[in-house]
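Duplicate of #3305? Posting structure anyway:
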């Protein structure tokens, strides 16, 4: 039987703790903007897909881009639309699908929220000296 690792030597436990610490910081940073973390991810993904990539994404495409569950994505997108941040319209080529656009208010909030999250990320991840190695590890783990 393999010897049990001490908590400070367990990669899974350390990743869990780091993730919780990062999520707490992101949650606190987004609170003044009245966005949850998942709302931010989906608003920012929609903003990026429409404003930067030039797409007219479906909810399915947004879920794929964000790596989120399609049903949860649908619920959150509806909530963001109810706040006037996104607009959902029927897809002319698929009656079951919805095309999602960012409203001007949503685009402004997304841009502001991205800056807030990037500042928070920078502050959190600055604890690591080798940023390239950090990105390489995170990329490998996210596959």
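Output from current build:
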């Amino acid at each position: 039987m393999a010897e049990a690792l001490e908590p400070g030597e367990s990669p899974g436990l350390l990743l869990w703790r780091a993730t919780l610490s990062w999520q707490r910081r992101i949650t606190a940073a987004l609170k003044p903007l009245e966005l949850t973390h998942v709302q931010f991810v989906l608003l920012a993904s929609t903003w990026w897909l429409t404003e930067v990539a030039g797409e007219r994404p479906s909810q399915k495409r947004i879920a794929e881009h964000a790596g989120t569950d399609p049903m949860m994505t649908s619920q959150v997108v509806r909530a963001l639309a109810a706040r006037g941040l996104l607009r959902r319209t029927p897809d002319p080529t698929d009656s079951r699908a919805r095309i999602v656009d960012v409203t001007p208010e949503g685009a402004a909030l997304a841009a502001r929220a991205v800056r807030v999250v990037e500042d928070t990320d920078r502050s959190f991840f600055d604890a690591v000296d080798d940023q390239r190695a950090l990105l390489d590890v995170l990329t490998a783990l996210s596959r």
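Confirmed duplicate; merging threads. The beta strands are 86-91, 94-102. The first helix runs from residue 11 to 30.
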